Structure formats: C-alpha cells, structure tokens
Amino acid sequence: MDQDKQKQITGYFIEEAKEHLQTIESGLLNLQSLMGNSEAVNEIFRAAHSIKGGAAMLGFSSIQHVAHNFEDYFKVMRENTNFQVDQDLQTLFLQAFDKLQELVEHLQSPYGLTKDAVDTVMAGSDQIFANLKNHLQNLISGKDTEATAVVGDPKIDTRGMLTAFQSEVPLKLRNMLELFKQPDSPRSRQNLAAICNQLQQIGDRFGLVPWSVLMESVNIAVSNPNNQFRTLAPILIKEIKQSQEQVLAQKADQIKASPQLLQLLPANVTSKSSAPKMASSQTTKAANIASENTSADEVSKIFGAVIEEDKAMKGWQVFSDCVGWRQNGTWIASNATSPQTTPDGHFPTPLWLASWHQSKDSKAKEFQAQYAALLAKIASCNIN
Asked: I need a labelling partner for 325 at 20 to 30 A (CA). Which of 221, 236, 247, 273 fits?
C-alpha cells in the first residue's frame, strides 16, 4: 500500500476511534447508571471492539492491546449485572481510558505513534489492568474490596509525574491549539472541555490538587460562551504552560489562577476562588492585558515554546540513551543496581568519550560537543 493511501486510512481510523472514545468516556463517567442498562454496556463494548479491530488491521498493536482489555472487562460487566459499582472501579477504568486516549492522540500528532511515545504511555498500564481485573472480580464475588490496590499510591511517584508532565501535557496543549484555530462551535468547545478534563486527570493521578483546581477553572472559562476563542487561546495556553513548568520544578503548590484567568470566570466562581479579590484598578489592568494578548501571532509565539521544549526533550532522551543514562526508554536512577544488560554507553562517560575519535565514528565531534555543552549547563546550575 502506498504512503498516501496508508495515511488516508489511518486518518479514517483516527476519526472513528475518537468517536468511539467519546462513547467510552461518556459511559465511564456514568458507570453506576450503566449497570441497569444492558444496551449502554453493549454500546461501550462495541466501541472498544471497533477500536481494537481497526488497530489490529493497521498494525497499531499498543492500541489493539489496550482496547482488547477494555473489551474483555466490559464483557465481564455485560455478563455480571448483580454487583455494586464503586468509586475505585470507576477510577481504575478512567485511568485505563487515559492510556487508550493518549495512544490515539499520539497517533494523530505530527510525530506519530513512536516507540518512545508508546513506552511512555504504556508504562504502568499492565498494573492498571491487573488492579482493574482484581477489583472487578472482588466486586462480583462480594469480597471485601478495601485492600484492593488502586493505582496512585499516597506517596507521589515523582519520576512518573515528571514523565507525564514532560510528554502528555505538551501533547494536550498542541491539541488545544489546533481546536482554538477552528471556528468557535459547540463541538469545538466540547472537545476543549474534554482536553481540560484529561489535563485535570493527569493532576489527579499524582494528587496535585493545585493543578487539578487550576484545570477546573480553565474548563469553566472554556465552557463560558461569552469568552471568545481569540481571548481564551493566549491566556489559557500560557496559564497551562506556566503551571506545567512549576510542576516540573516541583513547585506545584505555588500554582494559582492568574488575574487574567480569573477575569474569564463567572463572578460566583471567582468569589469562591482562593485567590485574593482584586481591586478595581487591578481588574481593569488584567482586562487590558487579556485584550492585548489575543492575536494569532501571540498564540503561536506562546505555543512555539511548547513545541521547541518538546523537541529538546526528545533530543535529550536520544542523547541520554547513547551515554547510558536511559535503557529501553527508561531513566536509570543514580542509586539503581547494575542493569542486567549493558547500556549503549557506560560509566564513567568521560573516560570512553575522551578516547572517542573521528576515525571510529563520523559523528564523534558532534557528540563530544553535545557532551561539553551538557557539562557547561550542569556547571551553570551551581549544584552543590
């Protein structure tokens, strides 16, 4: 099959998959009511089955795998209707749904469904489905489910959190920008609200309350038809980007809504916000700032940083794979035991790098320059 035809078929699959994902998400958000509605359960089962079939046909094995798990567990629910759905079951289903949705979004992105993207998204997915299976079986059998492990330990998974905010959030921002470029319509706003929900769920996954609260405010601003796209776009994208940077700097507790965002919220919502109430002069100034930052050029300028940062991160990952700081797409912790297999590079890096010369590798000088730049960057951080 030629490349253009393959691209066209993949486009059809993505569009259909997004519709099926909406069906699944809608059902999961109303999971309790589904138990008395066999047709609704069948509809979600068919949606997962359709995604699985299309992915299998096109060779997207990761999407096929996750959709197949969904299909299996909805089949169990279809055949066992005499049990009580609880919050843990819904949480586990939504965590699994995030994986499926992220894979489809990566497939639609300019980079496509790369190995790094698949590895990042699929990290922890098997554990989610194992917990889901265990919890579902306990509910059906009537066993005590208090001991069932729900993904999301009270202790924050710092590595997982940083990975999620480095890879997932930029993808959501790109999707949000594309929607802001489209005509303002109920469907566009619905899709924007869905992205806001996904961003909020990323924070919920790691217990980042300030991030989740901010995303809820962003969602309210998007849902307000009085806020035009040209006003929303630069403010919301900048708001999310800055909050992402605070999370990556492990300063999530400092996240709060800016005056510009508060101006986009209804008065009753703003009054309940933890942010201090602004004086009239501050309010006027905030409104002026919002109106000054509404051009398409400003949106592109803000978002350009997101794209460049994403490219830089991918370049850094490739570099780290080479020097042996990552193995099979996973960062090697400084206190980790020696790996079972030798990485592409090995420690201490300077020893072998110093003897690496042009006759052995045509890119030796380029790599040495990259490493020198890295050392300079580290030195500039004044790390004690």
From this structure: 247
Q: What is the pLDDT of residues 213-270, one digit of tens each?
A: 899 999 999 988 889 988 899 899 989 999 998 888 878 888 988 888 988 888 655 4
How long is the chain?
384
Nearest 5°: phi and psi at 327? -140, 125
Beta carbons within 10 angstroms of residue 155's beta carbon: 7
Query: In 3-state terms, what secondary structure has residue 276?
Result: coil
Which tokens sit at 123? 């990290």
Which 3 state secondary structure label does DSSP give 336?
A: coil
Give, in order, the Cα–Cα distances in Å from 143 to each of 37, 75, 241.
24, 20, 44
Dump pLDDT digits (tens) for 277-300: 333 333 334 334 444 443 445 445
Q: Contact at 8 Å (CB) between 325 and 339?
A: no
Cβ contact 62:113 at 8 Å = yes
Compute how many other C-beta atoms are within 10 angstroms of the C-beta atom of residue 194: 20
Positive or negative: CA dihedral 121, 122, 123, 129: positive
Q: Map residue 60 onto helix, strand or coil.
A: coil
Q: Which residue has the tokens 């400003």?
A: 298
- The half-sphere exposure of 267 on its side-chain side, counting CA atoms within 13 A, is 1
Note whether 234 and 302 are within 8 A (CB): yes
Cis peptide before 110 (omega within 30 of 0): no
